[in-house]
Amino acid sequence: MKHLLSAADLDLDAATLVLDTATEMAAMASREVKKLPTLRGRTVVNLFYEDSTRTRISFETAAKRLSADVINFSAKGSSVEKGESLKDTALTLQAMGIDGVVIRHPASGAPNTLSQWVDGSILNAGDGTHEHPTQALLDAYTMRSRLGQLKGLRVAIVGDVLHSRVARSNVLLLRTLGAEVTLVGPPTLVPVGVEDWPATVSYDLDSVLPGTDAVMMLRVQRERMGQAYFPSAREYSRRYGLDNRRVKLLPEHAIIMHPGPMIRGMEIAPEVADSPRSTIVEQVANGVSVRMACLYLLLGGK
Ligand code: NCD
Fold first, then answer.
1. Confidence (pLDDT) at 302
2. Domains and CATH numbers, the chain
3. Which atom of ligand 1 is nearest to the CA of 166?
4. Which DSSP helix (H) or strand (E) runs through 298?
5. H or E element: which one contains 202?
6. What is the pLDDT of residue 189?
7. Residues 263-271: what's their mean pLDDT?
8. Which residue's CA is minimally distant from atom 3 of ligand 1?
9. Averaged over 248-259, what is the pLDDT?
10. 287 pocket-lining for ligand 1 (C-beta < 6 Å)
């Protein structure tokens, strides 16, 4: 495989290979010297047209642990602000002989388009409301390490499904891995055509929680909302927020996930986010191992 554009690019064997490779990478992270020489002499560009904390630092750390040279490009402060198009930026990267491009872009499909213009491997780090495959991989990795096998696992993805690339990539990957997904949210934040997704839909969080092994809370993406999708933040929290009362409805073994950044008090109560059942910080740590695995598998060959 050359690029990672969508979670659908991975069949069961490929997804399992990424997760197993990530396990090996994680073992290395506990050593004193955390660096592998694998990508020495290769150059990876982080091309970020949208804000990011975790994903960007995570990709940078991952590439550096594999000894790649890393160039961080953010649209702010670059010629993008002078009106340069994605195509011209791509041609510039191409001229410089870049081996891999990690791209985050507000337009769905931008990574696919970029892959037609440059020779290097493209890794989608989030494109609009479309996909975020490495997030789905790190989420699957977290579920596997906490709960064992993914086949038959019951996962609830809750909140702003409509604007969430995390939800889309998770649904695709979890289906491949044999888990059962239930999407939960207000009807206005569940996409049209969801019937065709390999998932069940519910509008009632309380009734879903008792049959859930992993509950994944989504951020309400106000920056992508041009109109009001729900009456008020308080009303949203009352119906779809994960608070202590709702946590008690979950089975004892269930884990609580969030891709970050979270809005404490809106989709998740602070005490729930910080509880021992929350894997939020673990997900971030796992992200580095998973992205190392992706970079290694895509760029590591000759
Ligand atoms: C997510 C994203 O950017 O899609 N965050 C992340 O990468 N960890 C989710 C979000 O912004 O809500």
1. 47
2. 7-131+284-298 (3.40.50.1370), 133-282 (3.40.50.1370)
3. 4
4. helix 280-299
5. strand 200-202
6. 97
7. 97
8. 126
9. 98
10. no
